[in-house]
Design goal:
Blueprint (H helix, E strand, L loop, with lengths): L4 E6 L9 H11 L3 E6 L12 E4 L9 H14 L1 E3 L2 H7 L4 H7 L8 E3 L14 E5 L9 E3 L4 H13 L4 E5 L4 H4 L1 E7 L2 E8 L20 E2 L4 H12 L9 E8 L5 E7 L14 H11 L2
Parallel strand pairs: 1-2, 1-3, 3-4
Antiparallel strand pairs: 5-8, 6-7, 6-8, 9-10, 9-12, 10-11, 12-13
Length: about 290
């Protein structure tokens, strides 16, 4: 049988901080596949020439979300795409959190304000977060105190000018002590998890560079965390088979885990802290290609 032809899809130029991709490409090649690392917007890419296209570090998509979704749908007509195009369309807009909440999945409470709308900021003294519904790596995200409402409104106005829908969430203060946990799933089954510290420091401007994964370390999830993650994955529309998924959790006011984000498009899989997981990822990619 000919070697499966697999595209690992990234952005151009390939991000230097994507440490997983070179390791993954070499491992998939050693396993017998014909592997290419391809930019999603490469005009010369022949997607029909691949048996499988695996979306990986397409981390610029949030600035061109409509274009990226159109690419995913076009690519899926030419080859097998992981994850599927309809999942990409749903998951590139963080308004999916409302769908999860409607399915009784514990989530961080969120309100939304599209361009032309009037923002709803908290009317108490608690801190809150503003960020776009299409974002990655804490881009255009900031944490505000109650007395910084005008700064928050200025951020929302800037995002609206650039065509972004804003989302407003209460800041979950337990993240400063218990961190954020990311649970990675492969083929619908739990693979591994990491814990990282809080990304949004007080006073950091929304358009400043941020460290997306501070104080990264392996994590052993609790039964409660695994349960919430499973409920989130079960609530994905049309119940697709996902090659990969990542559920990002924080502690709510009472200490119970809730979903901050459900990453189904291009999540960092955190293979570096879990090198033993590489073999499992390669096996699932090869299985999906045949």
């Amino acid at each position: 049988m000919p070697s499966p032809r697999i595209a690992l899809v990234t952005c151009r130029p390939q991000p230097e901080y994507d440490r997983d991709l070179p390791v993954l490409a070499r491992a998939v090649a050693r396993a017998g596949a014909d592997v290419r690392v391809v930019g999603w917007d490469d005009p010369d890419a022949d997607w029909a020439g691949f048996d499988l296209a695996v979306i990986r570090s397409t981390w610029d998509y949030s600035l061109r979300a409509a274009e990226f979704v159109a690419w995913a749908e076009r690519c899926a007509r030419l080859t097998r795409l992981a994850n599927p195009a309809h999942v990409v369309r749903w998951n590139t807009d963080k308004r999916y959190l409302a769908d999860l909440a409607a399915a009784d999945v514990p989530t961080v409470p969120t309100s939304y304000c599209a361009p032309g709308g009037k923002p709803e900021l908290p009317d108490d003294d608690a801190e809150f977060v503003v960020k776009p519904t299409s974002g990655a790596g804490a881009r255009y995200a900031a944490r505000y105190r109650a007395e910084e409402r005008e700064r928050a409104l200025a951020q929302i106005a800037r995002m609206h000018d650039e065509g972004f829908t804003a989302m407003v969430q209460p800041y979950m203060p337990r993240i400063d002590t218990t961190g954020e946990r990311a649970l990675v799933f492969l083929g619908g089954r739990y693979l591994h998890a990491i814990r990282k510290g809080a990304v949004l420091a007080p006073g950091t401007a929304y358009d400043a560079e941020k460290i997306p994964h501070p104080d990264l370390r392996p994590w052993e999830p609790t039964e409660a965390e695994l349960d919430v993650a499973a409920r989130a994955l079960a609530a994905v529309p049309d119940a697709p088979e996902l090659l990969y998924a990542r559920v990002d959790l924080v502690d709510g006011p009472e200490g119970d885990p809730c979903v901050m984000e459900l990453e189904l498009v291009e999540p960092n899989l955190f293979l570096a802290p879990h090198p033993g997981s590489l073999t499992h990822v390669v096996q699932h990619i090869l299985k999906a290609a045949v």
